[in-house]
Fold this protein.
Amino acid sequence: MKAVETINVTKVYPNGVVANRNVNFSVEVGEIHAVVGENGAGKTTLMKILFGMEKPTSGEIRIFGKPVQLNSPHDAIALGVGMVHQHFMLVPSFTVAENIMLGIEPRKGLFSLDFKRMEQTITEYAKKMNFELPIWEKVMDLPVGVKQRVEIMKALIRGAKILILDEPSSVLTPQEVNELFAVLRNLSKQGITIIFITHKLNEVKQIADRITIMREGRVVGTFKNEELTESQIVELMIGRKFEYDISKSEHVAGEPLLVVRNLNYFREDRAHVLKNVSFVLRAGEILAIAGLEGNGQKELVEILTGLRERASGEVLVDGKNVLGLRPWELRRLGISHIPEDRIEVGSALSMSVAENMVSDRYDRPPFSGRIVYRKKNVIEFAQKLIAEYSVKVRSPTTLMRMLSGGNMQKVVVARELTNAPRIVIANQPTHGIDVASSEFIRKKLLQMRDSGKGVLLISTDLQEVLQISDRILVLYKGEIVAHLRNENLNETELGFYMLGTKRQSDEELKELLNV
Amino acid sequence: MKKSLAFLEISRMIITILIALLIGYIFLLFSTKNVSEALKWFLYGPLSNQRRFVEFLNNSVPIMLTGLALSLVFQAQVFNIGAEGCLFFGGFGAMLVALKFPQIQLVHLIVTLFAAAVFGAAWAFVPAFLKVRWKASELVSSLMMNYIAYLLVLFLVNNYFRDKAAGALVSYRFPQTAWLATLTRYRLNSGFFIAVSAAILIGFLLYFTKYGYQIRVVGANKKFGFYSGINVGLTVFWVQLLAGALAGLAGGVELAAMYRRFVWQSLPGYGFDGIIVAILARNNPFLVIPSALFIAYLRVGANIMSRMTGLAPEVVVVIQSVMILLITAEALLDRFKKKLIEREAMRNE
């Protein structure tokens, strides 16, 4: 019997983006079903439709064989669908029990809660499901893995027979992932149907019974786990044979372009976010700063690009200290910046693609005379860049918000690499975009390096770091703990430095300033 | 796609106006026996003779200028609604110069109007500066500045410039050299041409100059503007000053042409009407012209209706408000818009 079935479901968002096209998708009762695909393939939209958060534009949804209309998550929950979101929806200051029973809490009299019955219900349920939960602890004191179990419990106790998990493993450590999988297997044995979205193909192979692959809003196919290898899955996801054809030429680094000395920064909450950071970026190299998210990279980039004030130390360009200069002054020095957040920082969604491409040079010829803004020249220029960076867009006057993530990022990169920069600061330049666009952007960064620019690449993606960088610094808790040449390195070794279990001696690190 | 969306937008306008008129009609049903007569005067009144037509144009002048001021700040996503205070203070500035400056032909008038703009800008300086320096909400400070302008100016005018010979609480009469001409025997405010040219000029500024681009980027996404190297604080500051100048000019023009004295004993409300005009024009300076004319037409139509039939003009305020509610209601006809977008999106597959 089928737990969930969608028949020709199409979803068009109000901005014209087609997220799902005639999706036919079905899940058997009690199976663990993985949905994989690149960002923007429509996985999350499909799940939101099943949970009643989005209404399909057309098509039919069946739950346990019955055609249903889902107007809100309430309807979905009533039909036995539960969802665990990527970002947890819990009240941090409430206990586990309170969170689980929120909205369905047993009462005693008019005003007080029946805590005893609360505990009873939860423990009973937990025992049945073979779950362990510290029910009277506050959620904010719990590790992420446990929080996730609270979310799962929350859905189950509301009667979920079908459990949807949106990238459940992305926030977990490897050990927690194993625990999660044990829980999921157990639930599946109890007849609960599990649908989960993920990026990590090794996990898919590890746990899924069947796999549905999506691409550009369509279902490419549904397969039994045994039928596919990981690389076959990748091929189906991106729609072609995938090979890393990025080759890095030998290159000798030139004179120093950017010298950072003893940079220290205290955040508003007084946390010491950057501790004596020093390094040199040379012409013709890609210097990568690796590290897990939240180890000071964001602050470092914002300080170097003038978006954040009040750091101490020295940042030298052409021998002059540029620390504390504003973005317009730094841009004039030839520092360009691909920001981490292309939507909030890197673009104006309500303006056209063309206008987004000149935001850093709109006031100069040929885009402006002394006063007049020359729209024609802007559009012409945009047309050229669109072709050169193969941005998929109908016209330069299309609004930025109509673009997919990958294309949006290409617009940002196109702008930042074409204003004759000397130093390119690229913060997570391929974060959350499709494989083809990522590859394209990496190649462009390599081109910049080969033409003698200095590229500072900040990335949490180790594959990317190993693929294109010349040297690697590892940032851990605001400190540089390793300085490595990108020769015979592997992810595991970098991982040790990133987790703080290993660090280089001060002598080794001193070499930093003299390379 | 763009064409059909524009068509949708226009039909939406028309439908809202029709709905509003229908609601107005229902109101009229309750308040008068002769509904068709009242409605006739309301809809056709401003066109019924030359005098009324001029009255209609004159009515559009101050709200065109304040609407312009507000469309400019709204474009930059700055919510300075101090146009009323700027207008009041600008009017005071105009009076001051009109009464004190030597009476030289033409120069006197130009200086008077210029003073109105400068006083308006000076009044806008306060919230603008507070915003740039201490990030004080311009919404609150500009609103407060309206009351300060009102009471301060009233105090000054009534105590130092009051014409005791006049029968009402008004200032001394402006000397003739400070008069802004009124044309034809129905007294068309020549400020109308000032307002229209200002709208075209500001429209040009916004869409065809680099400063306009800067303002639009700041309005679209301030973080993006700052990141791109635009001095966002400075832009926001100057936009408010320019808007203040426009609102001040509105006050000067109105007094110098229509009254030739400082006559206001209460806030005339043009600054607030300007908000309506700007919203109706979707903050597009070019569209401020028809938008202000439209509002003025309603106002004058209402006056004529009430004069001809003895009906309370308040009915019209109701109709107007309904109309504005409907026009600003984004969700109206949203379903059609969605359908249209969906169809287009699928066709492009």
Remarks:
- The mean pLDDT of chain B is 89.
- Chain B has two domains: 1-32+314-349, 33-310.
- Chain B touches chain A at residues 207-214, 216-217, 220-221, 223-231, 337-338, 341-342, 344-346, 348-349 (CB under 8 Å).
